[in-house]
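Slide 14.
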Amino acid sequence: MGLLPKVQNVVHAPPIDQERKKELQLFEKHIGIRFRKPQLLNLAFSHRSFANESGGDISNNEKLEFLGDSVLGLVVSEYLYYALSDRAEGDLARVKSFVVSEDSLAEIAKAIKVDNFILIGKGEEYSGGRSKKAILADCMEAIIGAFYLDSGFKPSRAFILKYLIPEINKVLENKHKKDYKTLLQEFVQKKYKSYPRYSLVKKTGPDHDRTFWIEVGVEGKTYGPGKGKNKKEAEQHAAGIAYQALTEETEKTGKKRKRISEKVEKK
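Slide 15: predicted structure.
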């Protein structure tokens, strides 16, 4: 008897009728993998809101997400260990943080049409849940977890790297989406020995479709506002505005000092 139990059946997975079976097969064909147990794939698509509205007889995808997060982290870490063998641990951690981020996973999920297959509750559907980054990223991790249980580590590794290697290359080529909150905080800490301060300016729209407007303060100056469908997104936007302004200002100051220094040397 092995140390790990085998998955004999998927308890409380959403039922699969003929129409759903065709949908799952379409998804499998689209991404080039095949599940031995389609119930696992269907469970990976089961959002908490859908499970709750089903009266408690159906499970959600959160435990598969938990598992998928670990499998994803291991696969990416292993790949970076060998592919970037000349880099320091800090560099590997930085690259990994970008490629396994919510933004990155949500983009991959959109690219493979995950949003078309998610099972979500009516309220979440009404509020645009299919396009929410957190739901898409979590579902992507759940799919990875489900495929790992269904087919094992080697096929899961191939599936993950198929979509994550391009994301890794984007980071290495500096073409990835930036985490401006982190970049701004590091810049401000280094230059001013302080921290950016975010403040909510206003929020507009009905409860199911809010837009948030947030400013960020750095050393007495205010930048923004940035806007987004949630506070996190609005803060990223505001941080991007501040970071670009501050780095451009620093660059201009550096060039000015260089010109003055050159003039002094000529005299």
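Speaker note: The beta strands are 197-204, 211-218, 221-228.
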